[in-house]
Amino acid sequence: MKIRKTAIPMALFWLFAVAASFAVNYYGAVQERQLLALFSARSYFKLILVTRQWNSRHSGVYVPVTGTTRPNPHIDEPERDLHIDATRTLTKINPAFMTRQISEIAEESSGFRFHMTSLRPIRPENGASPMETQYLRQFENGLAEGGEVIELDDRPYYFYMAPLRTEKNCLQCHARQGYREGDIRGGISIFFPFDSDIRVKVMLLSHVGIALVGLAGIVLVIGKLSGRQ
Length: 229
Known about the structure:
With 229 residues, the protein is α+β, with helices and mostly antiparallel strands. Helix content is 50%, strand content 20%.
């Protein structure tokens, strides 16, 4: 009789252990997904910076004027546009303009977006969203980077943002705003689809199976021990 009384506490302890295992495994899977997304976002950010630096080291690059690539009114230079002949004109693309065009191509092909923004943008289109503004203010207080999962267009996306520092070549356009080399003058935010499928059903069913096997084992052991009394 005493042995049978221990069956319920043993069963409850076993169920608690299985539930705790499920919670730990689920939390670990979520953290792993977010960590992988963070590593991917960092790689994207570094690639964007390298691309911008390439453009900046060449003091901008010239491309043909087309219906989608028009002269940038924010580039105040006498040689912004080069007229090759009666039908061909080249216009200078600076790092900011190039970043914006690459972002448009990336969004069309893969849903990947990035946005160069600032609390004091030259272009109104570069104005910060409320979330971006929050991160930009934290960057000014020393935050190195930030990332989180958000809902965008009814889908989970990973949002990442890191500060953009003023380089020497940037002062050509931004010196009049009071920036100096090394100052944080904005940031680049990155959005990309976040795979939130953690195979919860598989994980849950496996733990339910373990729980049932354990309970069956407890019943079997208690039954045998009771029969010996």
